[in-house]
Amino acid sequence: MLVFYPRFIRTFDDLPGYVSLLIHCWSGCNMRCFGCHNASELIDAKPDGRHLTAAQVLERLREGHQLFDALLLSGGEFLMNDMTEIRSFLKRVKALFAGPIIVYTNGTFPRKMQCLLDEGLIDGVHLDMKLPYHCLDPVEDAEVYRAIIGIAPSRKYRQAMLESVEAVIRHDSKVSQIRTVRYPLLSEEYFEHIRLYVNELNIRHGSTVPYYLNPYYPPQPANA
């Protein structure tokens, strides 16, 4: 069952030119990234009675949809959820909200992501390309992977993330983006490899999906 964190965030920065509403699905995550801001509340913690159901989220959207222009769905990893439930939820969102719907993802579910784009249930994807996967071998560079995403992926897992990056760029939505956090553990060379890779894919597909290198902000203590 889809469950959501009860605190919605109105943001002016995540999607340039839009007032967006950011909703976190309380679904866990298949990574444990360095400095994750959602680790304690949304990944390590399980839904504890404060959560909202899909029906409750839809009711909130129905009451306040005039206050935002775009809807952002995050996690954890939103695409970890059952595809039937994701489809059902997004169809109902589409019925009451006319603005763009964007999914945040780490790229590990390329088939689900592609289906949602093909079916028009989402309008774009903000994909976190956390490392230059195309340059890093899952075995030889396992230590780098563990330091940043908390796991050493298989080669199949890495290929899935690369497929997602290319799929987002090939789709070429005006509300999509590829992005990376400027992790302090990494040198500038890592980020330059990602930027060049995204640029190469944009040229190959005749696309203009932007790449954003975002600042790293250390997570604040829970009692701060």
UniProtKB/TrEMBL annotation:
SUPFAM superfamilies: Radical SAM enzymes. Coiled coil: none annotated. Keywords: 4Fe-4S, Iron, Iron-sulfur, Metal-binding, S-adenosyl-L-methionine. CDD domains: Radical_SAM. The keyword Nucleotide-binding does not apply. Its cofactor is [4Fe-4S] cluster. Pfam families: Radical_SAM (PF04055). Residues 13-224 form the Radical SAM core domain. InterPro entries: Aldolase_TIM (IPR013785), Organic_radical-activating (IPR034457), rSAM (IPR007197), rSAM_sf (IPR058240). This is Radical SAM protein.
